[in-house]
Specification:
Layout lengths: L1 H20 L9 H20 L3 H21 L10 H21 L3 H21 L16
Helix pairs in contact: 2-3, 2-5, 3-4, 4-5
Length: 145
């Protein structure tokens, strides 16, 4: 009796843990709403890079990158996109994000700002290529904040 109770308890725990690990966040936002999130991360990242604040810059960069990855996974097609967003992410955004990440880790804020400006330029290139009437601003520009 004890053995069957113990086995049942173990099976229940395994099933419960399996269920918990398979829970995935469900993003119900459309592409425009996700891009608004991106705008907040991007603008604030520029501000904190300019302030040379490694902690906030790193936190904002990781938030921005994870949001981009969610967008890349969710929006494989969209009326405004000529290619899946993942292709643009890998080609235009990920290299600059990795350069920003590396520069922040080394406390090299001039390099981080340079990579951030390239990221901004690439965002705007994608917007132009896909006829999106929004301009991504350079948050490192002191006249912005």
């Amino acid at each position: 009796m004890k053995t069957s109770l113990l086995i049942s308890a173990i099976v229940c725990c395994v099933l419960l843990l399996a269920k918990c690990t398979s829970i995935e966040a469900n993003n119900k936002k459309d592409l425009d709403e996700n891009m608004l999130d991106m705008m907040m991360y991007h603008d604030n990242l520029g501000l904190y890079l300019r302030k040379a604040d490694a902690d906030y810059s790193s936190w904002l960069l990781e938030g921005m990158d994870s949001t981009l990855q969610v967008i890349a996974k969710k929006f494989d097609e969209h009326r405004k996109l000529s290619d899946p967003f993942l292709k643009s992410y890998k080609k235009l955004l990920a290299p600059s994000i990795n350069d920003i990440r590396s520069a922040i880790r080394q406390n090299d804020f001039p390099a981080a700002i340079t990579a951030y400006r390239l990221l901004t330029k690439n965002c705007n290139k994608c917007h132009l290529d896909n006829d999106i009437q929004k301009t991504v601003i350079d948050g490192t520009d002191p006249s912005i904040h």
